[in-house]
Target: Alanine racemase
Amino acid sequence: MSPLLDINLDKIRYNTAQVREKCRQQGIAVLGVTKGFSAMPQIVSAMLAGGADGLADSRMENIIELRNSGFTQPITLLRIPELSDVENVVRYADISVNSEITVMEALAETAQKTEKSHQVILMVDVGDLREGILKEHVLETAKQISRLKGVRLLGLGTNMGCFGGVLPSTDNLGLLVELGFRIENQLGFKLEVISGGGTSTLLLVENRKVPAGINQLRIGEGILLGTDTTNQRKISWLWDDAFVLSAEVIELKSKPSVPMGDIGRDAFGNVPEFVDIGIRKRAILALGKQDVYIEGIVPVDGNLKILGASSDHLIVDVTDTEQDIKVGDNISFQLTYSGLVSASHSRYVAKKFREVQ
Model:
């Protein structure tokens, strides 16, 4: 039996509804980010059932599949469009985030040729140093966009926590709002969206510290896992076990804790290190690095310890558990965001959906 990713759609729906309600109270719309689970339609439907105001993904392949699956909701492309792919962007995505005027000119030209209109969110770098233009270039870039035919400047956005680890704050989000005001005053039209980041901004929402004017968040991790990695916390009012990965025990034996013989490199080129703690009871599971990002899974039973993994095998120390683990049993794991991304995308991991009640 393949490793299994058990997906509770009802908990995803609940989490979406909880996030949307807290945000709605402060005038903030919620986009359900679908990239973390490869945009599987069952999960997308659960997000929408929970009240997500729109969808967002960083991969055009996912967006195309969503359209082909019949989803008609507004979809935002979260990764800056590739110049070589502007035709698909205009055809399948309603909105895209942008920072390069060359790309926006190509989007405009394509939109005119196909008699479509495409909306863009100008990304501003407020400190995390991933995508976005610097604040001193925002007004001039907005002017350039306003002169293009075929695209419309929908608003401003920013990203935090994904590269530099910079946390959202009233100061950096306030700067985004202020830049929006400047554009409106200089260019004489209203920006519809000021997009203030993702799950890491939920802490400000909880504490009611989001600056007035921020009216959109793009939420993936919080809805899916009930966690906020950037702020190093579990979100107490959300389910954290909507996704559970399990794999079968294929060997169970007591062995020394240190290998015998000269130590070279493992199958992935690393030199392993071991501490001698005596004979330990070890389970080998039918799960490996080809299946999931091992550093992104955590045993549900806190008395189990992952010792390591090869391409096809996961070695777990089961000495201290109270469970009577046998060959053929399954061991369960919760996932971090990186673990979820890899398990969702893996064709070696089966998926089981619990239907929304």
Q: What stands out?
A: The chain has two domains: 9-230, 243-354.
